Amino acid sequence: MIPDKAKKELEKLLNGNKNFVNGTPCASNMSLETLRKYAFHQEPYAVVLSCSDSRVVPEIIFDCGIGELFVVRVAGITAGPNVVESLEYAVYKLKVPLMILLGHDDCGVMKYAREHYPEKTGHFDSILNCVYPVLNQKEDITCHNFFAQQHTIWVEKYLMENSAIIADAINKGDLYIAKCHLDHSTGLVNLI
After folding, report:
1. DSSP character for 56?
2. Rounded to an integer, what distance in angstroms lies between the CA atom of residue 57 and that of residue 85?
3. Residue 139 — pLDDT band, cuts 50, 70, 90?
4. What is the pTM of this model?
5. Residues of 87-112 as b/e, b for ≥16 C-beta within 10 angstroms?
6. Cα–Cα 20 to 30 A to 84, which of 1, 71, 74, 164?
7. C-alpha 154, offset from chain centre
8. Alpha-carbon torsion 39, 40, 42, 48, what sign?
9. Is the pLDDT of residue 175 over 70?
10. φ, ψ (nearest 5 deg) of residue 184
11. How many CB atoms lie within 10 A of CB 163?
12. Domains and CATH numbers, the chain
């Protein structure tokens, strides 16, 4: 069950995504005045773990402005130590009620991992180490978009098992993790 505060914020983001899809963005806090308002503090209502992919820009696809989202971007939404600690910071220090794990279609990391699995390539090994566990469980994955969705599910499990801060916040009802996937053909963010 989604805690009320997280449910409200998730609905706000999904409605913002509809604005993006419909070409009717409403975000108004995208000015120097807003930046000055938050010059010495921040109050984001969600933390988003997103891929670094240039087509996946959470503030735009969720129709948000300055101060609304605490965004952590890394190739393939891979969850290494610095990424986990960044998410923990948002949960522990900023008290966000909602975490979005945002995968997407046509992810280059998923393609690269699938092409090279189970080898170490000498390049991107820390990224592959975060992606290969999904292929270890379901080696027959051929669709990169399905692979990306399975990886998003795995990231949630990884966070729950490797972050006492995140697990504790969820168990107390202070945090909800929404697993999401961006469809490039429609622009829609779908819940997994």
Report:
1. -
2. 21
3. low
4. 0.95
5. bbebbeeeebbbbbbbbbbebebbeb
6. 1
7. 12
8. positive
9. yes
10. -65, -30
11. 19
12. 4-22+44-191 (3.40.1050.10)
